[in-house]
Write a structure and sequence with these properties.
The chain is globular. It has about 160 residues and is mostly helical. Helix 4 packs parallel to helix 6. The protein has a two-stranded parallel ribbon with strand order 1-2. It is built from eight helices and two strands; from the N terminus they run H-H-E-H-H-H-H-H-H-E.
Length: about 160
């Protein structure tokens, strides 16, 4: 999904780290905007999601890389923004669900992406720590209490 950010707000948040090789740039921006006390508004007349056939993506050559990038970006965000007391549980649960839903069902390509994402996470721990702006427990609670983003589909 493409996104639009007011220029004044854009200048208040850091640039996306190049090493992140983004999947999840909207989440990165939303954490920073939230920490700055700025609001996010959705304009479905301007921005909409397009539908993607997830099952057919498994046949694409880039399936392993997509899996790798999507998992690691989520984990990077956990480590950069979530309070320390939440991180381990979220990481373990995320890995367990990937094993349960992918590996145990015979999706060995997804498992390879999972292993590569774990390696990326370990390799980038120093960079993640350097770029972290952890939320307090209260900020995290408030962030998690926000209404889910409304997603509008275009077909």
């Amino acid at each position: 999904m493409e996104h639009i950010i007011r220029t004044s707000a854009w200048h208040q948040i850091p640039n996306y780290p190049e090493w992140f090789k983004f999947y999840g740039e909207e989440d990165f921006a939303s954490f920073h905007l939230f920490k700055k006390g700025l609001e996010v508004h959705y304009y479905p007349d301007i921005l909409i999601h397009h539908r993607v056939d997830i099952k057919s993506r498994k046949k694409n050559k880039d399936y392993i890389q997509r899996t790798r990038k999507s998992l690691r970006s989520g984990w990077y965000l956990y480590l950069m923004f979530y309070p320390l007391n939440v991180i381990l549980r979220r990481l373990v649960y995320s890995i367990w669900i990937q094993i349960k839903l992918k590996l145990f069902k015979g999706d060995f390509r997804a498992f390879l992406g999972l292993m590569m994402a774990i390696f990326d996470l370990i390799f980038n721990l120093r960079k993640i720590h350097k770029n972290s702006e952890r939320m307090t427990s209260e900020e995290f609670y408030n962030y998690m209490s926000l209404e889910e983003a409304k997603i509008y589909w275009w077909t």
